[in-house]
Amino acid sequence: SGAMCSAVLLLTTVTFVNASAEDGVWIDGATKEAVVPELNLPSFAPAIEKMGEAVVNIQTEGEEKKANQPMPQQPQSPFDFFFHGQPSQSRPTASLGSGFVIHPDGYIVTNHHVVENAGKINVSFRGDKKTYVAELVGSDPKTDIALIKVKRKVKLAAAPLGDSDAIKPGDWVIAIGNPFRLGHTATVGIVSAKHRRIPGGKPYDSFIQTDASINPGNSGGPLFDAKGHVIGVNTAIYSPGRMGMSGYNIGIGFAIPINLVKNIVTQLAEKGEVTRGWLGVLIQSVSPDHAEALQLKEARGALVADVIPGSPAKKAGFRRGDVIVEFDGESVEDNDDLPLMVAETTVGKTVDVEVIRNRKKKVLSVEIKELTDEQEVEIPTEAPSEEERLGLTVQEITPDIARSLGISNPEGVIVTDVLPNSPAAKAGMRRGDVLLEIDSQSITSGKRFRELVDGKKKDAPMLVLVRRNNNTIFLTIRVEK
Q1: Could you give the residue ranges of the DSSP H alpha helices within 43-158?
Q2: Is 464 helix (H, G, I), strand (E, B) or coil?
Q3: What are the tens digits of pLDDT across the range 276-294?
Q4: Is 144 a residue of the active site?
């Protein structure tokens, strides 16, 4: 917008006149004769006035809470997702947030956590003292997006949607919302970073980070670019108080990219729920030690730690140890990239996936199926990447051990002890882990395990496939002697 030009400061000499209050020219003389600096600063006022028409305040009412009911557990992380509905004794719970009109017929986007478990959703518009009751069209907790709808006799001003892929760190952004029940409030900042994932977040997180002030009540509100287009939905802040619960902005806020939101709200509007694609692999990032052990040119891609039986990946021929570097024509730089790529793929579509297997590139064609809650599994936790002879003892898995562990297919050897400060301990190995492979070679017995270890040179990285609980993960151990 034209209002957002660069600031120009014209400095000229300042002179003052000698005048007295008695001759009546002290004020007028100073006004007429003094030459003050002339400022030409940008103003966001026209843009904020227009954009604010589409922003709404949201207040929800939940079920009645009993007296002396304990406070809800807060997220144990400095990343505060604005769960600020505080229950009072013998009163309905209430939460507040923001939203924005996405369609003139009354469709409004907000956060899932703003309307979660709400018995009643009240919406108010700027300049309208009337409160409107909204219906929940659909909600998606995995991305924290919800779609609600109000009925009004007039068509609503809808916020234009932008392209969150096009923004860059340093671009101007404007957040408008209802912080602390103050009503419509605008704050300005820049895009600090893109593609942010935060501890305790979700598999599909890829946040826009901004220093525009975001506080409780801004949740679900829009983040605009300098052209007045929505490029994100404000959802979280970094708040480093006690256990991260100070609840106030310190200049690090997070918004869900609008390009992700577009697909979510379209599905919510059409069917009230979100369908996601499913590949069926457990993945982890490729550390420099993993890359050296696998003889890769660079540490990039998603390392397949396991392939789920009966999954599309299993049918397509994926294997443990494959490194996925490209999915449906898009580069996979890190394991964090893959879940969102798969989730956004149309169910039933056949895509080409490029993997590196035994130092050679291979393309696998896989038909993406629908993800269900039963199929969804967490990405295995990775071991530390700085591991420096093993310091562990193993035992073959007897039928009794297999039964006690609930293992139907006893393969590998079980770790019975890990010495403190040993390479195995530093690599994250634990007592009870089942060792399945070393450098892609199966461990069929304790003897085979020792043969594989004895064959390693000093200080060489050894890639070990481990089963832990219901997951399999790769650990990298450096042999000391």
Answers
A1: 45-51, 112-115
A2: strand
A3: 999 999 888 898 888 888 8
A4: yes
